[in-house]
From TrEMBL:
This is Conoporin-Cn1. It comes from the Eukaryota. One of its GO terms (cellular component) is nematocyst. The keyword rRNA-binding does not apply. InterPro entries: Actinoporin_PFT, Cytolysin/lectin. Its main location: other. It is found in: Nematocyst; Target cell membrane.
């Protein structure tokens, strides 16, 4: 990992506000806001997402430019006693590489904890149908999916930082334990 992270600048979704303000402005008690800081010299493009539970509240930006940070949010369905769970991916520059973030914010936080997973995916993973619901299912249910250094799952605890790398890029992330959860990811060159 780079020894010093260069500051990123707020992108379109965060202009004039923080991800915390964005999250607190959502009228739901179960949400997941995701802030991605792009420390690379290439954009992150082509976002895709799948919600197992909940709906997009603020959609992912079409691109996260170099040295910027963007945010999106997902919320539980209105009047439903359910949480918010899903997966989102972005392509790294012009490469065939994508990264995925799986998130889970359960409705009953006494029975289950918030948790998230992060993984790098190459063309072979995507071409094998590892997208959408199948990707969420593998990242949520299959512990063997995380048996590589470029994939990891972690329970929410704002002070514990998850770290993965694939040799070219690294991702560092945290998630808090609140019902209005916030995931913060930094993608960096190695």
């Amino acid at each position: 990992m780079s020894s010093v992270l260069v500051s990123t600048y707020p992108g379109v979704s965060l202009h004039g506000k923080s991800v915390e303000l964005l999250s607190n402005g959502i009228r739901s008690n179960r949400t997941c806001s995701i802030q991605i800081s792009n420390h690379l010299n290439v954009p992150l493009t082509g976002p895709s997402f799948y919600n197992f539970l909940g709906v997009p509240y603020f959609n992912p930006q079409p691109a996260i430019q170099p040295k910027t940070r963007e945010a999106c949010s997902f919320a539980k369905k209105r009047d439903a006693p359910l949480g918010v769970k899903g997966v989102m991916t972005y392509q790294v520059g012009d490469s065939p590489l994508r990264f995925a973030v799986m998130f889970s914010v359960p409705y009953n936080q006494l029975a289950e904890r918030n948790h998230f997973g992060v993984a790098f995916l190459d063309d072979s993973s995507v071409n094998c149908g590892l997208v959408g619901s199948s990707l969420f299912s593998r990242m949520y249910n299959d512990e063997t999916f995380y048996g590589r250094p470029d994939r990891k799952m972690c329970p929410a605890n704002g002070s514990i930082r998850l770290w993965i790398d694939n040799g070219d890029y690294g991702i560092c992330g945290t998630m808090n334990e609140r019902g209005k959860a916030i995931i913060k990811l930094d993608i960096v060159p190695m």
